[in-house]
Amino acid sequence: MKQVPGGRYRDGIWTCPVSWASVRIVRGIFGDDLKVDDTVAQWLWHEYENRVQVAMADRGKAMDPSLEVQYSHVQGLYPYQGTGSRFLTSAQSSGLFDDPGTGKTVQAIETLEELDAYPALIVCPKTAKPTWRREFSRWAPHRDVVAVDGGAGQRRKLLEEEHDVYIVSWDGLRIHSRLASYGSVRLSDEEKKPKELNRHWAAVVADEAHRAISPKAKQTRALWAVGATADHRFPLTGTPINDSPADFWSLLHFISPEEWPSRSKYIDRYCAVSTNMWGSIDIYGLKPSTEAEFHQLTETRFLRRPKALVLPWLPDKTYETWDVEMLPAQARAYKQFEKDMESGTGLALDNLSLSTRLVQLASATLDVTEDGGLRMTKPSSKIDALMDLLEDMNDEPLVVFAASRQLIELASTALSEKDISHSMIVGGQSELAREGAELDFMAGRVRAILMTFGAGSESITLTRADTICRLQRSWSFRENKQSEDRIHRPGLDSNKALIIDFVAPGTVESEQQLAALDEKAARMEEIVRDRRALLKLS
Q1: For the structural domain made of 8-305, what CATH number should be given?
Q2: Of 173, 262, 186, nearest to 225 (Cα)?
Q3: Please, are residues 256 and 294 in contact by the beta-carbon 8 Å criterion?
Q4: What is the largest CA-CA distance in the chain?
Q5: In degrees rounded to 5, what are phi and psi of residue 346?
Q6: Which residues, in sequence order, are CB contacts of 276 under 8 Å at separation 6+?
Q7: Is beta strand 145-147 parallel, antiparallel or unpaired with respect to 165-169?
Q8: Cα separation, 350 vs 183, whole angstroms
Q9: What is the pLDDT of residue 278?
Q10: Number of separate helices (H) and strands (E) present in the chain
Q11: Which DSSP category does 364 fall into?
Q12: Which CATH superfamily is domain 317-537 in?
């Protein structure tokens, strides 16, 4: 019984939460030795008939792109969006993890309408607030929608008013909600105190819900707190995990806290683990012995459809890797840093920081600043290669990504010197500046748009271009995937979607980074099973 999430022993009796998952897990542990009394059997049958059976039937229809039935009373949705909304409605609380660019926002709005789940709280990146307002005005114009903006006092005043829909940013969520407890994390008196968002919600929708993957993060625990008493909870993201299946627990806990109360027991039962050389635990996938049970329990708690399934008219993504040899000054600095790493001379960085430094050296020259820091400067092999690419493309538009803001700024300087019009999206910009950069690119007023992964890989549509150049790849599989889908989405008027990666051969970029990203992609596939869905269709 220690294996059951939420299982507790007291006064000689084991108890666990009343949930579909708990009963299925107990059955998996005890098999035919489990005896179910009439009370539990009655509850199980009610849960099966009213949620599980209906949700599974609607899930099957949602996974069939040939189905032409329109389940929505709103005209204009794609059929798959109507069936997706129908599944969310029958599941009552569920994740929508369709590929980026498939229209999760409209499916969520349609679900709220079907359930009449108001008042509703929408949590999203601050840059997505205008999108949510625009989509509500299109698909549910009769709803009173407010974006909670302004200073702290103004936001509190808006939250005290009566509206159908409240749209708050992830930062606003953390400020205006108490925090849920987690493990041994200590809460201050202020963090325990209920705030403006801690009220009863008919529904809580978490957009770009991968921001709530870390259970220790304050915004994750604020989301749990506002969702705790909600009737319906719907996280939306195209990338529900980042590194391992353990990431998935935070979203499952938000969707159904009574089914998934314990992260440690979730890991013990479903995750394959090993001990690394430093004595800590590595999670490398789902445990084969319980993988089938995991999928059976989560099938009614999330829906995932790849774009190849529901938007087959979009062109396939094409990937090209361009070998960009380091310039002599870069190569010398790179080799010296590798020697310092091997000897341990003067280095007090963790493994990720060391790898990041090597990627910087593979991209540009590093100079020491007056305060002892490092700054990327010319000469830069990556910037030289970018200028060659722009020349080869004639006047075609281009989207450029990099992990480093300094590299993006170097690229901006180089483009300005050649009078190549461009805009930028980087951290610290105002919403107005960010929106203006996107609009300038989409309207054709600039030829290129330069972005960091952290600032530009979410909530942006750049379908004027059919080519993305990544000066560097991110170490995050999620950020790489999200960046590609800025162009690969409805509105792309081209027969190609080309992603070009600049890679310095013989460096950490061409060896460790690629292997790490491939491993993370395999872990993602274990959870979402895109290939299984496509094979089943074919």
Answers
A1: 3.40.50.10810
A2: 173
A3: no
A4: 78
A5: 65, 20
A6: 282
A7: parallel
A8: 25
A9: 67
A10: 23, 19
A11: S
A12: P-loop containing nucleotide triphosphate hydrolases (3.40.50.300)
Q: For tokens 């030829």, what's the residue?
A: 447
DSSP 8-state symbol, 394: T
Q: Give the whole-angstrom CA distance, residue 13 versus residue 9.
A: 6
Q: What is the DSSP string of 78-113?
A: -HHHHHHHHHHHHHSS-EE-PPTTS-HHHHHHHHHH
Is there a contact between 226 and 173 (Cβ–Cβ < 8 Å)? yes
Between CA 312 and CA 306 the distance in angstroms is: 10
Angle among Cα 529, 531, 537 to the nearest 5 degrees reads 110
Identify the pLDDT of residue 372: 63
Distance CA 484, CA 518 (A): 16
Residue at token pair 């409209």: 106
Residues contacting 501, CB < 8 A, separation 6+: 319, 320, 321, 322, 470, 473
Domain boundaries, the chain: 8-305, 317-537
pLDDT in tens, 25-80: 998 889 999 888 999 899 999 999 999 999 999 999 999 877 655 444 456 788 89
Element (H, E) at 335: helix 328-343
> What token pair was written down for 324?
């960009």
Q: What pLDDT was estimated at residue 536?
A: 79
Residue 263 near residue 510 (C-beta atoms within 8 A): no
pLDDT at 72: 47
DSSP 162-191: --SEEEEEHHHHHHSS----BTTB---HHH
Contact 234, 94 (CB under 8 A): yes
Q: How far, CA to CA in Å, does 247 sit from each of 23, 331, 382, 433, 453?
A: 23, 37, 33, 33, 20
Question: pTM of the full predicted structure?
Answer: 0.90
pLDDT at 347: 57
CB burial of 71-90 (b: ≥16 within 10 Å; e: otherwise) equals bbebeebbbbbbbbbbbbbb
CATH fold match for the domains 8-305 and 317-537 = yes
Q: Tokens 């991968």 appear where?
A: 210
Residue appearing with tokens 């599944």: 87
How high is the pLDDT of residue 366?
85
